[in-house]
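pasting for the record
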Amino acid sequence: MANYIFVQNGNAGYEEATITIFEGNIRQGYGSGSNPTAEEKIVEVFSHEGDHDTNQQAINAIKDRQEGKANNYNVEKPAEALGDQVMREIQAAKAAKGKKRP
């Protein structure tokens, strides 16, 4: 179980958070020449997982559930939205860069 500390306004936060991404698993699905690339997918996954560690509503929901309290907040929805947003921005930047080439 995670250790919590109280942060701004008395909200709970993680004492420590670690995000582990298994690069090999991602590379199996997003090999050389894929779109998105494995590197881009890693950034998307990190953004998604980072939301779980920084989104106050998600932190509260996870803590409540660990303590046996009911909390129906969908922790995946905002994390997925953030990952999707990051991937859209990566793809838009790639497209813009490609248009600048002579």
